[in-house]
Amino acid sequence: MTGKSFSTLGLVTIYTVVLTLLLLGVDRALQGGSGRSVQLTDGLQCIASGSLLPTFDTCAEQSLATAVALPVSVGGVAVEKPAYVHYRFVADIPTDLGGRPGIHFSHPTDLVRASVNGEVLAVLPSFSGEPRTRWSKPTILPWPDGVLLPGANTIDLVVAVTPSADTVLTSFSVGNSDSLLQEQRLRAWITTTLSQSSFVLMMIMALSFAVLRSAHGGGVFNWLIVAAVSGVLYTAGFAVTNPPLPETAWLKVGDIALRVYGFACAIFFLRLVDVRHRLFERSYAAYLVFSIIVVAAASSDHYKSLSDITNFGLIIPAVVFMALFWMNRHGLGVVSNQMLLFVFSLIVATGPATYWSSGDNSVSLLIQQMVPMLMVGIGFWIILGQVVSSVNAYKQINATLETRIQEKSAELSATYAKLAETRRVEAVSKERERIMMDLHDGVGGQLVNAITYLRSGSADHSVLQSTLEECLSDLSLAVDSLAETDNVATLLGMLRARLEPLLTANGLKFRWQIDDDPDMPDIGPSRNINLLRIVQEAITNVIKHADATEISIRADKHSISICDNGRGLDAARRQDQRTGGQGMSTMARRAALLRAELTVDETEQGTCVALSWNSQTAVQRSSERPERASTPMDLACSIDGSMD
Amino acid sequence: MTEPASPDQPHKVLIVDDQVLTAEHLAKGVALRDDLQLIGMGFTLEEGLKLLTEHQPRIVLVDLGLPDGSGMDILRAISKVTWPCDALVVSVFGDEKSLVTAIRAGARGYILKSSGIDHIGQQIATLIAGGSPMSPVIARRVLSLVAEGDVAQTTQEQTVEILTAREHEILTLIARGYKRAEIASMLSIAIGTVGNHINNVYRKLEVRSNTEAVSKATKIGVL
Fold this sequence. Notes:
Chain A has 17 helices and 15 strands. Chain A is α+β, with helices and mostly antiparallel strands. In chain A, helix 2 runs antiparallel to helix 3 and helix 8 (334-356) packs antiparallel against helix 9. Chain B has helices at residues 20-31, 45-55, 71-80, 97-104, 117-128, 136-154, 165-175, 180-187, 191-205, 210-219; strands at 11-16, 36-42, 59-63, 65-66, 69-70, 86-91, 110-112. In chain B, the strands form 2 sheets. Chain B has a 5-stranded parallel beta sheet, with helices on both faces. In chain B, strands 4-5 form a two-stranded antiparallel sheet. The interface between A and B is medium-sized, with 22 and 22 residues.
């Protein structure tokens, strides 16, 4: 054991001792205030005569003291077998009590018969047969008219005495019946109603725990059921006025039940704070079994003392339990912990306090009666506390969950954004690649040509100029295709503006007819450049080979056509064959990339190169004949075929 | 702003371009025409601004990319001068985004660096005669600006003065690549009238205060 364990043990012990002393003090204070309205003049007598009484064989042992203060106790060992003891008081009772006189026994534990001036007030039901001690109700007995005498009155009380337990005659009150009734009711409520309620409550708890156990399985419920059942047996001792067992046996049942109850509660509370101390539990169990055997086997004569001794022994496991509980209390709320420790200590303290307290008008005894109910109350408090804390925890979990959902959502949207950005970057990069390719093929090639001409000195000024002009024109095309706008008509307009000087220089005229903004699919720079290159190539072919005077450009939603009034494209094809150029096939390849149809229509009036598309059919065609769409050369051949 | 050219006095032209060859090419184009007189060439922003105030030219050809600043500053200066003065931006391709900003800052059009020298003189003369050039891309961009302006108008922040139906029609045709003469014949109006409409569009595009121009251009995403 650690130093901390010792200090906790010490603290708990001191706590319990202080509570014991406090209880004793309270008991003492309460005892002092009893026996109010009767002035016993002749003191207490023990008489052994009277025809009504079955036996009076114990009187010889009783003191015939002339002035004895109540309560008096007849030791259990003083009688060898159950007997009756007859007490006689002579008291000065004022005749003017302001109402009907009566006598109130707040704890008439073992009272069986009472009479005043020879007039019998009551014979209690047990005044027959075997004398027995019993827990009886507080009793008020009204006096018949004319019984009260001026001056001294004789009060006779008969109490049952058994060898196994002390017989106690507590103080009693004489006075106005009406005012005594108030006190009696309060007493009755405390001793009877509460103990009976406690009994009923324990039965309900036992049943509830049994139901819960069948629904949720064993575990802590086993201990709760053991505690509740033993609680039922224990509280029955207070609540049942006519015990079904002989005196000592009944007392033993309550005694043993209380021991088992204490053990079950201790184990339950240790489980509650998640403590499994084998050494303690085994030692406690062993001692419990030992004490139960001792108590159960005790003879009536020795029961009382053996019960007291073994009960004192239980203080040790009780204190150790409290220390263990206190050291591991963090599983419960602060209030629950402190309350539990207080109640545990109080219960433990009632043991010695009851032992040392003289008489039965004891707070400790009352607390002992209430122990099961107290525990149920605490259990309810803990459960309530746990419900509240679990509700709080639930709220907190919800809040945390919500925060996490928000975080995750943010993460997710960030991921989506990243993904979208990645795709965008990828798309941009592909576009860039295409345009770079275009610039390489066009501008790059022309610039290399120009430099080669310059180095070799083989070309004259005009060749260089036209090369560079073509280069700039190519570059303009690329720049236009990258324009902010994707409007095909505007792109064509830009191309026109750039080619116009060339056309003018070659004596050609534009006939421009854009009826509608062409509605081409797949907007973007690479579409633009493919489109512009097709139109540019068609126009260049006309300028170079067609020998025409007019080029008409027409466009509507689904087509663009470039027509001339020249002599056809044979020259262009011948040029391609001669130079290995791919002007015509490149146009077809670009058209395929645009998912558009390129047709060349040559008539005597001239040639028409038309690009037409229908977003729907274009898509369908490309999915039906993917191999054709992916091999531009095939398309080029088919076009070449159509031109032949 | 544009005034008819005086028959006896040639119009003074200033060229501001940091590329000497381009500047000289433009100068040759100017020199070809009797009605134009080159008063100087500035190769930096500072020189350009100095020449502008010294000689009070009628026409300024401005390159937007200058070593010591932006040609936009010259445009802003021109918009504040007291004498009639029009600016043409010198452009390589004629479709740069900055052209619209330049127009909004007061430029009356652009001139292509690659144009032949005779074409340069022709373009300047056309401008003086009241015909600002406008490429299809610029027309398209202006149209989209107007659409944005319509939206902005509801929020009491008119970006561009609303165009008339005719101006809109003409801009749409320019955006489709039609030439001024073709538009005139299609709409059965005189070529000069088409030019006037285009000038009006330029005027509507122009934002008076320079800071306003920049801030508005920034807002509508031109800058």
